[in-house]
Each structure stands twice: as C-alpha cells, then as structure tokens.
Write a structure and sequence with these properties.
Elements: H1 3-21, E1 26-34, H2 41-52, E2 61-67, E3 69-73, E4 79-82, E5 97-101, E6 105-112
Parallel strand pairs: 1-2
Antiparallel strand pairs: 1-6, 3-4, 3-5
Helix pairs in contact: 1-2
Length: 113
C-alpha cells in the first residue's frame, strides 16, 4: 500500500510548513488528488489516522478534492473526460492521448492559527 508513504509525505510537508509559519496549530489541510493518479481514496482514508497520529495533522480537518481525468487526443485534438487510463477518444477512437488533468497529487493549502 503506497498510500501510507503518500500520507507520511504529506505529514512531512505539513510539518515543514508548520515550523516555517510559527503557528500554534494546523486547522485544516486541503489536498488535490487526481482520479488518474493511481491513488486509492479508500486507502488514503484508511492510512490517514495511523500516519497522522502524534503529528501536527492529528487533529486537523482534511479536505480532499478529487479531480476528474481529462485528456486530449493526439490524433484529432479532441478533449474528453477519462473514466480509465485506457479510454479511447470518443471522436476518432484513437488510444493515443495526452492526459491533461487528473494525475494531480498535491497539498493545495494549509490553514494555520
């Protein structure tokens, strides 16, 4: 389960920014996770409590925005939403595409006090 290491990385980012800010607590953390990133939402939720125990994120509100996949066909330039990485272009049926949205995995914001 690589999601545990992802959550531990998020904790490291939060800890570093928390120390730089001079704040006393982190009220909320906002994450962006693309549906095409390979990160399983259930696994993130499962790993979160254990990975954040006794850290600056232990009592922090977690807000996750899941970003839908979007691609551009390399053959006809049609842009379309992706359900799966292997989806074909609905216009020309080509499988050659550039994924332009949905592979994100980032800490968008920390709210501190």
């Amino acid at each position: 389960m690589h999601e545990l290491s992802i959550v531990l990385g998020i904790v490291d980012i939060a800890q570093s920014e928390f120390e730089r800010s001079g704040a006393t607590s982190i009220d909320s953390i906002e994450l962006e996770i693309g549906e095409m990133s390979g990160v399983e939402p259930f696994a993130i939720e499962f790993a979160w409590p254990e990975a954040t125990r006794n850290t600056v994120l232990e009592n922090t509100e977690k807000i996750i925005e899941y970003i839908r996949g979007k691609a551009e066909c390399l053959e006809c330039k049609e842009q379309f939403e992706l359900e799966n990485l292997y989806d074909e272009c609905p216009a020309c049926k080509s499988y050659f595409k550039n994924i332009i949205k949905g592979k994100e995995l980032r800490v968008k914001a920390l709210t501190v006090s």
